[in-house]
Design a protein that fits this description.
Pseudouridine synthase, 6 helices, Structural Genomics Hypothetical 15.5 Kd Protein In mrcA-pckA Intergenic Region, Chain A, three-stranded antiparallel sheet
């Protein structure tokens, strides 16, 4: 079913009377906020009740304009960066620009690269609408060593999420496939009764879920990844009966009252790994952004 929610560009156009091209430019220039958070994605669907503000006098966002505070750590081998929601991790198609890779390169140049090579090696990714910590390699050796750690599941990855319903602690282990039977990713055997053994292309996926705080119609949860498959947390929480607040894809089977949000409420809070050159264990933690914290606060107040 086609979504009836308007895009950010449509609302900007309605508020300002601008042409479609100008409405899109206002987003990419960083002059539009949704619920107080800068929104760069003009095609984002806006749920009912969300507050969209256009400030044509706001300073234009320069390409690569991440604040210095986004860098959690960097040296000649690695850089750890806090990705904002709404930004692509990497370019997927020709023309994709202002990705986290692009912005991090530009920020390192502004901070003074101390002569280090400008390339960034990509080892993992976050979904566009997911915020939180990522690590890039700055040398070929660092990329190789970190890739081994990711394949061996030696990386510490802890997410915070806001999920529908009352969530209890659970260890989820499934085998994820690209098409569960209705055209979307999912766990083998969840959507349709399995026939025969687990297919070779299915990926073993393990998520440890722990409730943190009850909210009105939802729960703030910690999701600790043992493996890191594409959309793993979103799929596992949905199949558990608790899709994330703001979920648009993995929510078809949910019959409860949906809490609206402009993005899935998912934040990569903790990232830990062994330094690729020294072997020292390193761990980083970043608080969730304003929109995530505002959602928690509103649902806490609604529960009173």
């Amino acid at each position: 079913m086609r979504s009836t929610e308007p895009t950010v560009a449509a609302i900007v156009r309605e508020q300002t009377g601008a042409a479609w091209s100008r409405a899109r430019d206002l987003c990419t220039e960083g002059r539009v906020t949704v619920n107080g958070e800068r929104c760069l994605d003009s095609a984002l669907r806006v749920p009912r009740g969300a507050v969209v503000v256009v400030d044509e006098r706001a300073a234009k966002l320069r390409p690569g304009a991440l604040p210095e505070s986004a860098i959690a750590y960097f040296d000649r081998d690695v850089v750890v960066v806090d990705k904002p929601a709404g930004m692509l991790s990497i370019a997927y198609e020709p023309g994709d620009k202002d990705t986290l890779v692009d912005c991090t390169r530009a920020l390192l140049r502004r901070m003074g690269g101390r002569g280090f090579a400008p390339q960034l090696g990509v080892i993992h990714r976050l979904d566009k609408e997911t915020s939180g910590l990522m690590v890039f390699a700055r040398t070929m050796n660092a990329k190789r060593v970190l890739a081994v750690q990711f394949r061996a599941h030696d990386i510490e990855r802890v997410y915070h999420a806001i999920a529908h319903g009352e969530v209890t602690a659970k260890r989820i282990e499934t085998h994820l496939i690209t098409d569960r039977g209705d055209g979307i990713r999912g766990s083998y055997g969840h959507f349709r009764r399995p026939r025969g053994g687990i297919p070779p292309e299915a990926k073993r996926s393990v998520t440890h879920v722990r409730p943190i705080s009850p909210l009105a119609g939802a729960t703030l949860v910690e999701c600790r990844l043992e493996t890191g498959r594409q959309h793993q947390i979103r799929i596992h929480m949905s199949e558990l009966g608790h899709p994330l607040v703001g979920e648009r894809v993995y929510i078809r089977d949910y019959a409860g009252r949906k809490i609206e949000s402009v993005r899935p409420m998912l934040h990569a809070r903790v990232l830990g790994f062994d330094h690729p050159r020294t072997g020292q264990r390193m761990s980083f933690e970043r608080e969730a952004p304003d929109d995530f914290r505002a959602m928690i606060e509103s649902l806490r107040l609604a529960r009173l």
